[in-house]
Amino acid sequence: MIYGVHPVLEALRAQRRHLRALYYREGSDAKTVERAIELAQGCGIAAYGLANEDLHRKSGSRQHQGLVLDCGELPKLALKEWLATAPAESTLVALDQIEDPQNTGGIARSAKFFGATALVLHRSRSAPLSAAATKASAGALESFPIVEVGNLAQALRSLKKEGFWIAGSAIGEKCRDYRRVDVPRPRVLVLGSEGSGLRRLTRERCDDLLYIPRQTEEAGGVDSLNVSAAAAVFLAHWA
């Protein structure tokens, strides 16, 4: 089940998932509900009106905004499959053990907004692409290519062989101010986990390690940005 206006509408438009049924708030005259019903009919699935409490139970959340979609998982691509049709000037965003679905969704939203090409996730060490993730992405995950890999360090090595420049977000002596580095295309932005950052092998695969400097020494004890916010800063700068 996914829920919320943007996730449901985008899932119905993209039709990447296996779609089973739409549920909407009974008696609602919202234009978004009318649009969702029209899209569901176009997809050949039934739409059912339910009381608000039933939508709470169906979605497992009170944040459904009157729309819930019963559907399959998001499809994922293998790296070789994606590379076969990859644009020459691609910007990939690779996540190294980011386990918070809110951060994964937020990064996907920024990636799509700033023109990145795809998201690279570890098969077993990433946040699930859950209802929370797609809602945090404002539906961006529904139409954004997702590449799934079993070994991120090996995937980065393969991308380097294909001519990609690998830039990791990190903090340390060998890191450079992101504003002073011209990162060539095609390129990969690698973001590490919220706690420990990039793993050793991931760091070793990077051609550049970049950091975002604080703008003032009096930042109230704040030494770094949330990983989703950092992604937006890098991608906005590159865009």
Explain this structure to me?
- The chain is of the alpha/beta class.
- The chain folds into two domains: about 70 residues, 60s Ribosomal Protein L30, Chain: A; about 160 residues, Alpha/beta knot (3-Layer(aba) Sandwich).
- It is about 35% helix and about 20% strand.
- The chain is built from nine helices and eleven strands.
- The strands form two sheets. It has a seven-stranded parallel β-sheet, sandwiched between helices. Strands 1-4-2-3 form a four-stranded mixed β-sheet.
- Helix 1 packs parallel to helix 2 and helix 5 runs parallel beside helix 9.
- The model has no long low-confidence stretch (mean pLDDT about 95).
Average pLDDT over all residues: 93
Give helix and strand order, one letter per element, not per position.
EHEHEHEHEHEHEHEEEHEH
- Uncertain residue ranges: none
Shape label? elongated
The total beta strand count reads 11
Helix content: 25-40%
Q: If strands are numbered along the chain, what order do they take across the biggest sheet?
A: 7-6-5-10-8-11-9
CATH class of the largest domain: Alpha Beta
Q: Per CATH, what is the topology of the largest domain?
A: Alpha/beta knot
Oligomer, anyone? single chain
Number of separate structural domains: 2
- Which architecture name of the largest domain does CATH use? 3-Layer(aba) Sandwich
**Count of separate DSSP helical elements:** 9
Radius of gyration: 20 Å
